[in-house]
Amino acid sequence: MAAPYLITGAECYNEVHPRLDICVLQESHPKQFTLFILAWKEIRKPEYQPAAAQFSQIGGIHGMPYTRWMGDPDQAPQSDRGIWLGYCNHASIMFPNWHRPYLMLLEQAISEVAHGIAGKFANSHPAEGKLWIEAARALRLPYWDWTHQRTNQEGMPPVLVDSKLELEMPGGGRERHNNILAYYEFHRPIDGFNNRLEYKIIYDAKDDKKVPDTMAYFKEWKRTYRCPNSSPVDVADDYQQVNKVLTAGKPTPDAPFPIGSWANLSSTVSAMFKFPINISKPLYANAWDEFSNTRFQSGHQDPEDRKKINSWTWNCPSIEQPHNYVHLVVGGIGHMGDNDTAGFDPVFFLHHCNVDRLLSFWEQVYPDYVAGTEGYLSYDGKGRIPFTQTRGTYIERPSEEVNENTPLMPFRKSDYTYWDSRDTHSLKFKSKDLELPNKYYTYPAIAGVELNILEQKLDEKTRDEQRIKLREHFEVYSTQGGHEYLAVVSLSEDYFPGSYMLTLAIEIDGSQYEIGSVAVLGRGKSSSCGNCRGRREAGVRVRGVIPIPSTAIDDIIQSKLPIGARSAPESLDERAIAVLKDNFRAYLTLPSGNLLGWPTEKPIQRAEQIVLSQVQNSPLPEAAAPAIRFLSRQLTEEQGEPRVGEPISAHWRSAPGSKFGYTDHGWLNLGPWVEAVHK
Q1: Judging by DSSP bridges, how do beta strands 441-442 and 17-18 pair with one another?
Q2: Domain span including residue 337
Q3: Residue 210: which of 646, 546, 655, 608 has the closest Cα?
Q4: Which residues of 512-529 are buried (b: 16+ CB within 10 A; e: fewer)?
Q5: What is the pLDDT of residues 436-478, one digit of tens each?
Q6: Any idea what DSSP says for residue 93?
Q7: Is residue 507 part of a domain?
Q8: C-alpha dihedral over 489, 494, 498, 503, to 10 degrees?
Q9: What family does this belong to (predicted)?
Q10: Quick one: three-class SS letters along 8-68?
Q11: Domain holding 40: CATH number?
Q12: Would you call 427 helix, strand, or coil by DSSP?
């Protein structure tokens, strides 16, 4: 039996170095970039040893082929079901924590090879030797910052899509190499890679005479693809479509507010820093649950109404929400759009590295908000309920309690024990009080906020100031006059076995503008994932929060209400609320972009000019239909956001039924939903 591959991160020389933006790494650190590409290329070889560090092994941990990772050969299953159920920890309080050692695994494998390459370069070119060795020491896994302004300007950066890369070599030479960041070429068929049919679409938005079968040909495709066409041969990435989505929504005279994917992504990240800095200790686990995953188990405590969210919520999006959306936008029907295959696309790791970056800053601002070991506070505030994994995984029994001590299999530390959520928390270095394992990386500052990797804890005032800086840095939607508006979305995982998304639009003067989306990142019916199957069987729903531009709300009020009946946003009356809610639109789409469903009473517009009368449809069961609530809250103009030690009520005007300063205006009544597919 092979020995375990222990995950320590890039620990060589016991130094901490920053993970860099992939564009910065390429442009400003060419030697590191060269080592990064050459090292990752090396571990892709099928003969690379140790086998546990081969990229094919690492990519397979996330889903298919549903076999044990060779780096943890001695693990014992806790399930008696006799089948492999995978390591999935999505829609779980362990979602961000599990992916941290996963990234460290790839970072470690690349670092080990990079040092060997740097040593060879130093021997062949002694005059440059020190520079190459230093580059290897500093090299860490880079991230793709999809919140950066350039995403709205150009979409995916060229370094992730170009067919060739130019690398700086010893002696001042330059070499062109195939771009291994653009795809991964399989050396052999992956067990379990079956073709997956989205369903037979009745109406193709691009051609009303075509009846397409939108198949993902995972079995035939010889490499990973991003947003590809549905064909077993002559298949290609469609970056034009990916970038069309990412760059959509620039302000125009007709819509003087930023809309679309990039604005939605960045504003969603901003809203993750809206949690109060001084939540009471009994609610720490509830806050972590709301932030860490889209299931939000502590928020769905009414067995009679799974769409209902209880009072212990701060109406903030989870870190898993923008993560899911990027998966679907980049993947389409390709590998990134399905959790079973996503781990083989190189951009998966750069995407998750950015998620980890955001997590790191959130942990610094809110260091005490963790899952703990006592579960979450119940709806009535009288007891605590344990977090559970609905159907378990290969290493978890069905409905087994999970907490910060739950092993994050298959990842073992240097002492041969498994990483757990307590180990992964924060990037503190040599922390004696928490006895955390070192991770040997950090991230560059954001908006002047530096990550504190020293042992001492920052005081509340400093952390609150950092929270506001981070909010303002990522914020795109104006909170004009101190007013915030949002939609809380609830989507069924059981309705559709794979991935899909809801897009929310707002109608102003007869034109509709997409303001945000919430994605369900799933796996097909053929998936062996125990956690995913269990969530579907239990009727678990995905929760998302969509920030709404206040200027759009103002435009509706100005255009829909007579001058004498117009009310200022801070005093919205029932008539104004009714008008606002009447001007929301929503629809469901598949990763291919095909229309999946829509509400019958609210006509929608799309770029392809869908004619709904030509779409055959069937009613969507109530339990499967999306549910959307409209909320608002206000800041006092004098004081702005609540500060440390001051009650929220001193800054937010509350109303009956308000939740932590938000006024809940109820469900959007969009009418019965229908779907445009055969099952």
Answers
A1: parallel
A2: 1-476
A3: 608
A4: bbbbbbbbbbbbbeebbb
A5: 689 999 999 999 999 998 877 899 999 999 999 999 999 987 6
A6: T
A7: no
A8: -20
A9: Belongs to the tyrosinase family.
A10: CCCCHHHCCEECCEHHHHHHHCHHHHHHHHHHHHHHCCCCCCCHHHCHHHHHHCCCCCCCC
A11: 1.10.1280.10
A12: coil
